[in-house]
Amino acid sequence: MSPPPSHGVDLVVRPTHRRAGEVHVIVGPMFAGKTTALLRRVMAEADTGRSVAIIKSSRDNRYATDAVVTHDGTKFPCWPLSDLLSFKHKFGADAYQKLDVIGIDEAQFFGDLYDFCCEAADLDGKTVVVAGLDGDYLRRSFGSVLNVIPLADTVTKLTARCEVCGNRAFFTLRKTGETQTELIGGANVYMPVCRQHYTNGQGVSVTKEATRIAFETHVVQNDLVLETAAAIV
Ligand SMILES: Nc1ncnc2c1ncn2[C@@H]1O[C@H](COP(=O)(O)OP(=O)(O)O)[C@@H](O)[C@H]1O
Ligand SMILES: Cc1cn([C@H]2C[C@H](O)[C@@H](COP(=O)(O)O)O2)c(=O)[nH]c1=O
């Protein structure tokens, strides 16, 4: 029997894969063990004979450029990339076809996370394990991490220990006054905190910010007063 006419639609024939794809998402604040969980998951897949690769954002060069490294020093070689959709080409089409599992660390830094997960899991039959921050230091949605939840088979939110009181920490507090969303750093810049100490900690920053604004306004006002006074004299 001949295949049905395509009516002008290009039919892309993809190789049938042994298994259906999967997407697993691991989120949480910094120091919650996201990278540890990602490595554990990917290594467990490798132990069953599946072929694995890990990608991390090339922006995060804190501990190594070509390895995923946890805060307590466990390492695994990885592909440092600025975007995900170039992975297939860089990895090589043949090697990609044989690949079963793709781990993605620092997922908040990849703008093409959603498209990559769709293609890798839905079309190419890969198991994709995504680890990243769900929220930034202001507890706003970070990058595209939350966008892939509707694509996921499983979602795991991990917690850390609050550095102030030792209770469960859900949030990441920035200890410095920098206000840009992306700021690479570790324990020198960030700490995991519970709700109470996030609110208190933000209170400190908010107070600092209010003081700064008040100070600047005061300086501007003083300058205006001085200028006005100069104009009068
Ligand atoms: N406040 C902290 N400062 C530095 N290291 C920490 C802190 N809290 C926990 N850790 C260590 O970090 C490990 C988790 O590291 P990692 O898996 O890289 O976390 P994540 O990827 O979520 O940031 C913990 O097992 C612990 O040893
Ligand atoms: C909260 C927050 C974090 N970052 C950066 C800091 C680190 O380089 C990574 C997170 O690493 P981890 O593996 O989860 O420890 O993200 C940022 O740029 N902006 C933020 O608000």
TrEMBL record:
Pathway(s) of this molecule = Purine metabolism; Pyrimidine metabolism
Which reactions fall under this protein's catalytic activity? thymidine + ATP = dTMP + ADP + H(+)
Which superkingdom, per the lineage?
A: Eukaryota
Which UniProt key words apply to this protein?
A: ATP-binding, DNA synthesis, Kinase, Metal-binding, Nucleotide-binding, Transferase, Zinc
Pfam entry (one): TK
Q: Report the record's Gene Ontology biological process terms.
A: DNA biosynthetic process; response to stress; thymidine metabolic process
Q: What is this protein called?
A: Thymidine kinase
Q: Which organism is it from?
A: Handroanthus impetiginosus
Q: What is its EC number?
A: 2.7.1.21
Quick check: keyword Ligase in the entry?
no
Family membership: Belongs to the thymidine kinase family.
Gene Ontology molecular functions? ATP binding; identical protein binding; metal ion binding; thymidine kinase activity
